[in-house]
Design goal:
31 strands; seven-stranded antiparallel sheet; 20% helix; alpha+beta; six-stranded antiparallel beta barrel; 10 helices; single chain; elongated
Amino acid sequence: MLKRPVLTSLVLITAGIIIGAVIVSNLSGGVDLGFARTGEPVRLGGPAPIQNANPAVKALGDNFVAVAKAVTPSVVAVTVTSSGKGKERSMPRDFWHFFGPDLKMPEQGPSQGFGSGVIITPDGYIATNNHVVEDADANGIEIVIHDKIRYKARLIGTDPSTDLAVVKIEAKDLPVAALGNSDNVQVGEWVLAIGNPLELNSTVTAGIISAVGRSIGIIQSNTGIENFIQTDAAINPGNSGGALVNMNGEVIGINSAIATTNARYQGYGFAVPVNLLKTVAADLIKEGKVHRGYIGVSIKEVDQTMASALGMNDASGVMIQELVAGGAAEEAGLRPGDVILSVDGRPVNAPNELQSYVAQRRPGDPVTLKVFREGKTFEKKVGLKARQEEQVAENAANPGKPEDESDGDAPKLLKLDAVGMSVRGLKPEEKKEFDLDKGAVVADVKPYSEAFNRAIRPNDVIVEADRREIVGPTDLKKLFDSRKPGDAVLLRLKRDNNKQTAFVAVQIPK
C-alpha cells in the first residue's frame, strides 16, 4: 500500500510528463497524441528537412513550371477515326511510330487512334504527324484543345517524306506555340515533351537532347528525309505530333517515333526538327502540297575505307552513287563518284545532313556544293529542281566484245579469297535483265568477311573497280591480285533488288 506523500508525488510527476509531451509535440509540429481538446486537428508530419534549397536547383524547377504552363495550352489532343482503310505498317525492328494505345491500325473494320498536335496559327492551323492522320476518314479527325472544347478538323495536307501534316479547326484567338530554331539545338540541353500519351491529356515529361541528326530508317520511302532530334524525355504512344520544347518555351521539334522493343517508352524518342516543320507547314497551308527543291542524286556516307580508296586524307562527305536523269546535279556537271563535302559552307558528313538542308529550299533556289573529285577539290553552284519521277541515268554501254567467261552453259566461278567472295560471268538472261553485256556477278559471299561487312551480296553485278571497267570475273581477279594487303578498292555495283548502281569500297585485310 502506497503512502499519500508518495502517491501525490507520482500524480504530479505523471501530470508533468503528459503536459510536457503535449507542449513538445505542439512546438515541434509533430503528431498530436490525442490529448488535444476535442475538435482540434490532428497534426501529421514535420517541418521541411531543407529550408533553403540550392537557388540554382530551385530556379531550374521554376523554369520547368513556367515552360509547362506557357506551352501546354498550345498542344492539342487528336483523335482519328478510320473505317477500315488503315493498314498495318511494317516498321524496322525496334522502331515504332506512336499511334494510339495499340500503335497499329487493323486491316479491316473501323478503328480509332490517338495522337497530339501543336497550334501554329491563332486561327486554327495545327501541325501533327502524317502517320497520325494519313488513314483518317473524310470527317474523322477530332481536336480537343486545352479548355476541353472539341472541334472537327479538316485535313489541309500531308508530307510523307518528313512525316508531317497540317489540319485546320474553325476557331479564333487560339494560344499559339513559339517556334524556335532547331539548328541551334545542342546535345545535353534540357527539354520538355508535351502531349497526350496513352490518352493521358496534357502530360509533360522532362529530359535532355541525347543526339541530333539521327536517321533511323522509319520513313519507308525513297524520298524520306530523316534528321531527327533524339531525346530521353519520356514519350509514349499518343505523343506523336506533340511538342518537344526548350527552356525558353520554344518548340524545337515534333515528336514522331520511339526506339523500343515492347512498344512503350524505353529511353529514346525522336522528333522532327522544327525548322523542317516551318517550311513544310508554310507550303501546306498556302498550297496544300510541299514544293521542295532536289539536287537529284543518290548518296552514301564516306567511311575510312571508302576515303582510302578515293585517296582522301580523312573520312568526310557523302559520295554520289547515281544521278537522276535531267536532274539539277547532272545539269551542273556532277558525276557518280564525286564526294560532296559541304553545302553552302555547312559540312556534310551523312546523307540526311544534305537531304534535310536541301529539303528546306524550294525549286529554283541555288546551293553551292564543295566537291572532291580524283584528288581535287572545287565548288559547284547547283540550281535546285522540282522532283520528277525517279529516272536514274544509266551509263552508255561501252563498245567491244566481252571476254568469254563461261565453261559451257555454266559461268566460270573465281574466288576472291582476300575479301571473302566468289564471282562469275553474266548469264544470257542476266545480261537482258540488267541491260549489261559486261561485268562480274557476285556468286557467293562468306559470312562476316570484308565483302559481307561492306554489304556486298549475292547477285550484285560488279561493273567497275577503281574506276576501270570490269569485263568479266578474270578482269576483276587480276585487279585484286595486283593489290597488296591494306589497299582499298572502290567497286561500282549494279544491285539485283532495284537495278540501281552503288559504290562500295573494300579493304584487303592485312
